[in-house]
Amino acid sequence: MNTKRQLVTIYTLGEMFGGILRTEAYLLEHGTRPYAQYPAAPYVRYIPKGKRKERGFIQGFEPYLVIVEGVGPQPDCWKVERQGDMEIRQSKYPCFDSRYRTEFDEILAKSGAKILADYRFRRPQGPVVKPDKYRLIQMMDGQMVRSEFTGANVYDAMEARGYKFLELNTCRSNRVELQLQPIFSGLCGPMWDEDAIRYETKDVYDLMSA
């Protein structure tokens, strides 16, 4: 954890379309801490330049958070066209396109900016091996109970517990291990749990995310 207050520029991914967001701010604190199923989720607390109120956030899945000293470079997320007296801006790429990140990574590297903290997720090289282990966390009599299944019996095991198969996860912004994994009624998931595909009941999810 770092608590030195100084002028910095904070970069992260926008939640609306996945481009790079840039914020000049006075840094209050940054570091990692447990959050939901993530043992070391990066977080930052800051006061935006020209503002008085503190802000902050914590990131779980595949974080993208960079803090540089002073005034950092501008990201290049827009295509700008002029039509007469009007300036029209539109995003360069589709939502959450990986080129937003790779292009800004190059801009940042060439800028020579001093990086104070780098919490960018880096995907392991080589083929992705999807685990054949599924983990269910339920709340029973005030206690969290864990059950584990294999790919051969996960559908039957979930149905026996009242969780009906709905569809396969096709969200392309999810990490590779979660794509084409089953989605069940009444459960939050699929989620990544280091060595397994994880599902939680809503009460467990709310408790872990508090």
Q: Return the average pLDDT rounded to an integer.
A: 89
The helical percent reads: 10-25%
Integer tally of domains: 2
Low-confidence stretches: none
Number of DSSP-assigned strands:
14
Helix/sheet category = mainly beta
| Spatial ordering of strands, largest sheet | 4-3-2-1-5-8
The proportion of residues in beta strands is: 35-45%
Q: Any overview of this molecule?
A:
It is built from three helices and 14 strands. The chain is mainly beta and 210 residues long. It folds into two domains: 112 residues, no CATH class; 76 residues, no CATH class. The strands form four sheets. Strands 4-3-2-1-5-8 form a six-stranded antiparallel β-sheet, covered by helices on one side. A four-stranded mixed β-sheet has the order 10-9-14-13. It has a two-stranded antiparallel sheet with strand order 6-7. The longest helix is centred in the middle third of the chain and has 13 residues.
Task: Write a short abstract of this structure.
The chain has three helices and 14 strands. The chain is mainly β and 210 residues long.
Fold blueprint:
Layout: E1 7-13, E2 20-35, E3 38-48, E4 55-58, E5 65-69, E6 78-83, E7 86-91, H1 99-111, E8 115-118, E9 134-140, E10 143-149, H2 154-160, E11 165-168, E12 182-184, E13 187-192, E14 197-201, H3 202-209
Parallel strand pairs: 9-14
Antiparallel strand pairs: 1-2, 1-5, 2-3, 3-4, 5-8, 6-7, 9-10, 11-12, 13-14
List keywords for this structure.
about 210 residues; 2 domains; 6-stranded antiparallel β-sheet; 3 helices
